[in-house]
Specification:
Blueprint lengths: L3 E7 L4 H4 L13 H15 L5 E4 L3 H14 L3 E3 L16 H7 L1 H8 L12 H16 L6 E5 L1 H12 L17 E6 L6 E7 L16 H5 L5
Parallel strand pairs: 1-4, 2-3, 2-4
Antiparallel strand pairs: 1-5, 5-6
Helix pairs in contact: 2-3, 4-5, 6-7
């Protein structure tokens, strides 16, 4: 078979990204910067000629993906298994508030453990659904697939597709808003990273938010 490509594209900026609040599965839409980011990134991503675009159902990902789908004239597929991890009572908080409200669990989280807080999605649950979503998308076409999703989902996708230990992706800098990873394979089974944290050079305001500010990437130490 010929070479296949998979694009893992993080959504554009939201106001919660800009204020470093945990989004999780809260349905926060893009801000004006995020909308401009999506338009700028689409110019480059369209050149990759994706045959299939699949998005998380959360607005920040869906609205990002819709710009590319319209540019290419492709239908936009939606898969709620590409949602970010649910963070329960931590959603909407910044790291200071998390530490104030749940100091023991927050420190456990920073040390790389799993916090025991109301409503957080378990690691096995998110890993299983992300795996199912990726393989379902790849089964639909032999062409390039673009998955439009979230920072934590992309970290887990790399672990799954590259057969890495779970600690490895945390050693990578988090993806900036509207930046992507490209993976390639020649045999359909062994994937390799072709490029990481790719984006479009753009005015300073397009990079106003820090990269990947979901709770995991704020609080977990880099381990590699």
């Amino acid at each position: 078979m010929g070479q296949r490509r998979l694009l893992l594209w993080r959504h554009g900026q939201t106001e919660w990204n800009a204020s470093q609040r945990v989004q999780g599965q809260s349905d926060v839409g893009l801000n004006e910067v995020g909308r401009r980011q999506a338009k700028a990134a689409t110019v480059a991503l369209a050149q990759e000629r994706p045959a299939l675009i699949v998005s998380s159902d959360l607005r920040r990902a869906y609205d990002t993906a819709q710009v590319l789908a319209q540019q290419l004239g492709l239908p936009l597929q939606v898969d709620d298994r590409l949602r970010e991890r649910g963070f329960g009572i931590w959603q909407g908080l910044d790291s200071v508030q998390m530490a104030e409200q749940n100091p023991i669990e927050f420190q456990r989280w920073r040390a790389g453990g799993e916090p025991d807080i109301d409503g957080i999605e378990s690691e096995p649950a998110i890993t299983a659904r992300v795996s199912a979503a990726i393989h379902a998308a790849l089964a639909r076409t032999d062409g390039t697939v673009c998955l439009v999703t979230h920072g934590g989902v992309i970290k887990r996708a790399l672990t799954l597709l590259l057969n890495w230990p779970a600690s490895v992706p945390w050693g990578f800098e988090g993806l900036g808003n509207c930046r992507w990873v490209q993976l390639r394979t020649s045999d359909g089974s062994r994937w390799r990273v072709h490029s990481y944290n790719v984006g479009v050079d753009s005015p300073q305001e397009l990079h106003a938010a820090p990269p990947a500010v979901e709770a995991e990437l704020l609080s977990r130490p880099e381990t590699l």
